[in-house]
Amino acid sequence: MPTRYSDPRLRELLAAEYALGSLRGRARDRFRSLMRYDRGLQLEVAQWEARLQPIADRLPERQPPARVWQTIGSRLGHESPEVALAATASAATHSQPPSTRSRWGLAWWRGLAVAMALSTISLAIVLRTNDQPATGGPGTAASGGMMAILTDASAQPTMLVSWPMQARSDGKVELRVRIIMDHPTMDANTSWQLWLMPADANARPQSVGLVGIEPEQRLLVDAAMLKALSEGSGMALSNEPAGGSPSGAPSGPVIFRGPCIKV
Amino acid sequence: MADDAALPLPASPASGTGSRGAGVASGLDPARLGDLIARCALRDQAAFAELYRLTSAKLFAVCVRILRRDDQAEEALQDSYVNIWNHCADYRPDLAAPMTWMTSIVRNRALDLKRRPALEVTGEDSDAWVEAFADQAPGPAEQAQDAAAARRLEQCLDRVDARQRQVLALAFTHGLSHSELAQHLRVPLGSIKTWIRRGLIRLKDCLGGVAEVDWR
């Protein structure tokens, strides 16, 4: 690490010019790679970006052409992005009919959904057979349930969360959490917090509870949450300060996530 | 991503959320944007569509100012939203407000694209932003907190020397480098560097060491 970058005044000036955009070319590349492992520089840049943001906010808006969104959707392999956007863009000028590209995307999508369902079924079978000797409690096997298979950023399965569709006699819903990754590690002074993503895209994530790194865990939530649990679209695990998010909404990075599935 | 499979697109999402103003910032509630980014991290495509609908006109304006050419600006915007989707799990709400985070991604992409040769810099509306900023009337539909931050920056810029102010504004909105600024303003390179440095120091002294993250 070059020592000249330890001069605090130089660091601040570089951070400011980086945020301003006047740091260019190879100097910009160099600063970027320096910043990658330097939390202090990241913070410095973030503060400058926040200071200068009102300038960007002030620019008069300009609507990008519809093809921009279509290209983004096809690059990401998303399902028929026009539909999703057209549904929300009530005041938009005009939306174009779905292209052949997006229909291809839809076919691919459905294939994926089938593959996903098959893998879920096999997992569910494994879980059921495992469950029978262990619990056998009322509700679990009889009325079916739901599960979420959480994966990490590289799509490796990390965690299974399963729950029944009904509460226990004491008015609680018991969720089983199984960590299925090899070496779960949690940073010091942090907690893992599990969140339920409601079906309504505009609703806030709901906290399910804090999770440890033990392979088998149980979480108890009030029966009042059962409806949300049965309609949830997905679950996510975020890294939070010790004791959980202070705000009641996810505040740290999401490390695992996955959809909710009926089994 | 396999885990997208069971996340259905809602039939008629957000049709009544009331943010249908003609290109005003009324939909840019930071907490709302933060929620949408969290949902994008869960691979929720409907949330991504909503995020795009709310923010793309703002961010396209940023691209156009820096790149000057619509085709380049569109490319930068596409790349940026692909990046936003791919990196939304890395978003740190404690470090930056949602719009600041997205603007940073967009500006970085636009500045990278600008490095390609043969992107000439024309200066026809180079002073437009400075003039717009000098206009003391607040924007028609800015949110109270945005307006407060903008006013604070405005007041601080007022205390900065006029030439320094112009250089900072051109660097930020138009993405002009030191040498481009020198060329454009017909001023020696050394003066540009000094003005930027002094302007930034004055700006920081005035704004203080605040991190604008109390948006919740």
What does this structure look like?
The complex is a heterodimer of chains A (263) and B (216). With 263 residues, chain A is an alpha+beta fold. Helices cover 40% and strands 23% of the residues of chain A. Chain A has an 8-stranded antiparallel sheet with strand order 5-4-7-8-1-2-3-6. In chain A, a hairpin with a 7-residue loop joins strand 2 and strand 3. Chain A is globular. About 14% of the residues of chain A have low confidence. Chain B has 216 residues and is mainly alpha-helical. Chain B has 2 domains: 105 residues, RNA polymerase sigma factor, region 2, helix turn helix motif (Rna Polymerase Sigma Factor, Chain: A), CATH 1.10.1740.10; 98 residues, Arc Repressor Mutant, subunit A (Orthogonal Bundle), CATH 1.10.10. Chain B is globular. The N terminus and C terminus of chain B are likely disordered. The chains are: A alpha+beta (263), B mainly alpha (216). At the A-B interface, helix 1, helix 3, helix 4, helix 5 and helix 6 of A face helix 1, helix 2, helix 3, helix 4 and helix 5 of B.
Task: Give a short synopsis of this structure.
Chain A has 263 residues and is of the alpha+beta class.
Topology:
The complex is a heterodimer of chains A (263) and B (216).
Chain A: H1 8-20, H2 25-36, H3 39-58, H4 66-76, H5 81-88, H6 100-134, E1 145-151, E2 157-164, E3 172-179, E4 190-197, E5 206-211, E6 216-222, H7 226-231, E7 234-241, E8 254-262
Antiparallel strand pairs in A: 1-2, 1-8, 2-3, 3-6, 4-5, 4-7, 7-8
Helix pairs in contact in A: 1-3
Chain B: H1 30-41, H2 45-67, H3 70-87, H4 98-114, H5 128-134, H6 144-159, H7 162-174, H8 178-185, H9 189-207
Helix pairs in contact in B: 1-2, 2-3, 2-4, 3-4, 6-9, 7-9, 8-9
